[in-house]
Amino acid sequence: MKRCAFCAIVDGSDADVVHRDDRVIAFLDHAPLLKGHVLVAPVDHVETFDDLPRELIEPLFEVVQRVSRAFPKVLGSDGSFTSINTRVSQSVPHAHVHVVPRRRGDGLFRAGIVWVRQRYAADEAAQLAARLREAIAAS
Fold first, then answer.
1. In the chain, count of helices (H) and strands (E)?
2. pLDDT at residue 120 in the model
3. Is residue 17 within a helix (H) or strand (E), and if so which, with residue range?
4. pLDDT exceeds cutoff 60 at 1
5. Which of 32, 33, 58, 124 is the most exposed, having the fewest neighbouring CB atoms within 10 Å of its CB?
6. Which of 19, 37, 94, 96 is catalytic?
7. What's the burial of 134, exposed, middle or buried (CB within 10 Å: 0-12/13-18/19+)?
8. What confidence tens digit (pLDDT) does each residue in 9-49 have?
9. pLDDT tens, 80-108?
10. How many CA atoms lie within 13 A of 133 on its CB side?
11. What's the CATH number where 64 sits?
12. What is the span of the domain harbouring residue 134?
């Protein structure tokens, strides 16, 4: 059985982590919709949002909110887009919330919801993650 990619990140695999506590981890998506796209997930393996224990909902969404609030400070964004895929289009079977920085006219939904991914330049993700970590910790 293939190991869960997000459990590997929880265990220290290479990722640009922007928040970590005993219940929730948040890290930059390696193929973002828009640069700054963060995934927020429970530390414990939970396959889907539908399976998420009630006691993890508040801590998970507290971090989602803190990430969203950090975007204007760090990225100059106008807001954010937050989504959860449950089974359908859930590429990693570990519950997670997408938090994507938005700017007016960014074209994200020009043709409806289309998940067109991008890549970071060398060291760009690490630098952005450090700035987001600082802003999230201050919130």
1. 3, 5
2. 87
3. strand 17-20
4. no
5. 58
6. 96
7. middle
8. 999 999 999 999 999 999 999 999 899 999 999 999 999 99
9. 999 999 988 888 999 999 999 999 988 88
10. 15
11. 3.30.428.10
12. 5-138
DSSP conformational letter for 66: H
Q: Which helix (H) or strand (E) holds 40?
A: strand 38-42
Domain total of the chain? 1
Matching residue, tokens 């929730």? 24
**H or E segment and range at residue 55:** helix 54-75
Query: What is the Cα–Cα distance from 54 to 34, expressed in whole angstroms?
Result: 30
**Do the Cβ atoms of 4 and 93 come closer than 8 Å?**
yes
Give the amino acid at 30. Answer: H
Cα distance between residue 136 and residue 62, in whole Å: 11
- Asked about 98 being catalytic, the answer comes back as no
